[in-house]
Design a protein that fits this description.
Elements lengths: L13 E3 L2 E6 L2 E6 L1 E3 L4 H14 L3 E5 L3 E4 L1 H16 L3 E5 L3 H9 L9
Parallel strand pairs: 3-5, 4-6, 5-7
Antiparallel strand pairs: 1-2, 2-3
Helix pairs in contact: 1-2
Length: 115
């Protein structure tokens, strides 16, 4: 189990499966690594559920380590953003490259340039 506690200093990454988490002040940075598809989404969802339950003020999902994503992964990230915004949390996605970026652009969900 991953416990998420905001810290005034950057923390080391905590990794569970293909999900890594680190805090930097009040921002929680979440890396999704490798593949996010129908097979990996349930495990990633468990980690993201713990993040939502911790109600962090800001969450940034970093996709720079993600190689492949499908519709299940897109839905998971989109739902995460909606759930966090309902709680009043800031949410952003950054770092998408190659196939994940192409799919985000195709679905008109791509993060702003430089994100």
């Amino acid at each position: 189990m991953v416990t998420i506690t905001p810290s005034p200093h950057p923390s080391a990454e905590v990794r569970t499966g293909n999900l890594s988490v680190a805090t930097d002040g009040t921002q929680l940075r979440v890396w999704i690594e490798g593949v996010l598809d129908a097979l990996t989404a349930p495990e990633v969802r468990e980690g993201l559920d713990r993040i939502v339950a911790s109600k962090p003020p800001r969450v940034m999902v970093d996709l720079s380590r993600l190689r492949i994503i499908d519709g299940h992964g897109i839905r998971l990230i989109s739902t995460l953003g909606a759930r966090l915004r309902q709680l009043g949390c800031e949410f952003s996605v950054a770092g998408a490259q190659q196939q994940p970026l192409a799919l985000l652009k195709l679905l008109k969900l791509d993060p702003p340039a430089g994100g």
